[in-house]
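ARCHIVE CARD
Drawer: 12
Card no.: 0347
Subject: one protein chain, sequence and derived structure
Cross-reference: see card 0346
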Amino acid sequence: MSTPAPDAPAPPPPPAEQPPPEPDTEEEAALRGGLVKTLLAVVVNVGVLTALLVYFGWVRSERMADLLGLDEAILGMTVDDYVRRSVRSVVLIPIYAAAAGLAWVAFDQWWQRRRVRRGMGDPVVAFVARWLWAFALAVFALGIGLWLIGYATTFIAAPLVCAGAILVLLYAVSLRGRLPGSTRLEPLTEGVLRGAVAVLVAVGLFWTATNFATVEGTELAHGFVEEVPTLPGVEIDSDRPLDIVAPGVETSCAGAGEDARYHYRGLRLLEATGGHYFLISDEWSPGYGVVLMLPADAAGIRYSFVRDLAGVRADAFPACADAPAA
């Protein structure tokens, strides 16, 4: 007697179809396109970028010169000098801002997918939409706290954190408008809000880069004494006395009469700009330091840039008191 075959297992039910994502409205598409065009217009504006680079380079140089007891104006720096000194200040801040923007996009995608799957009634979705503004205010308060702490890192980060908090607040307003029963902003009001946020964020980024340049100039000034031995060594040969009086400078002579040459060693190159060499001495200190300015193409003067770690050229020229009489 045969037994009946067992019933085949019922096939699993097909997965429920997920509702398609809501298409962008014409207003949102236009807004996104306008935002992209605005960002591109700013990025490709060479005049604006050059002006920013020059300004940040000036902030860095002015801060360093002020702490060293100099007037930045006497250095006579050119636009190229300022630009080369500010690239780091301008490049790093947008990189940090872009990284934060990518994290923001990842969070938005997570929230949007959860909203599509579970709807606005989901507790997590509703909580984020309802209370994200409080998180934005907390981040803004954090930025103010960082400013009050006063460390170099917090001094740089404070405006950037506040700018990010303002953007999160704008995002929170957008999410809150999706809650059931919420009233969305009028187009004109939303346009004013977005414009105000854009201005505040731009000021925050500008302020952050300025603080970065200020801190960089301060650190360069504080570590300048340790950096003096690493600067290029300079020796000067002249057909006439230059009367260089600075701590650590040695003067020697060679020849006599019209053939006499004066040799100066113990100098370091501080800057080469505006057709001049700005030199300091080996024993420069914040308490007593001399900055010597000489034309790069002065007649009768020859500059030698040397690396004499062992001091082998110390006796290359006799002391002026031992030179033969004319």
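Annotation on reverse: The two ends are 140 Å apart (CA to CA). The chain has two domains: 26-222, 227-322.
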